[in-house]
Request: fold
Amino acid sequence: VDISLVETELQPISDAVKGVYDILSSEGDDALNENKRYHFHVGTTKILHYLNPKLFIIIDSNAARAFRDSHGIRYKNTTQPGYSAERYMQCIECAQSDILGYKAEQFQSLEMGIPVTRIYDKLTFVTGRILGHNNT
Reply:
């Protein structure tokens, strides 16, 4: 798949993305997580980003904090902060809106040759990290 977040309508692919997310993040005997009792949420977002870095963003605890504070997407404040396929799609939709609102070309100018989704990842990571330090 070689589609870009800035050129894609998300609604038609939403169910497929959520289905793949649920499979990759599942717990149990066939789980990708080393500890089969836990879901593999952050790893799932990394796998999706690796498969198509122009479409998928990475959500870790820092990014989740940034999305919570800037977009109101509620994640629990635990080691497994309420990740889900639905929340992942909400974050992708917010990322698309942010990138298009700011202009993809301006994002791209921050680091030429790097997908705008990866640039966005870096910005949300830093934002969430700063927010985390400000709350401690």
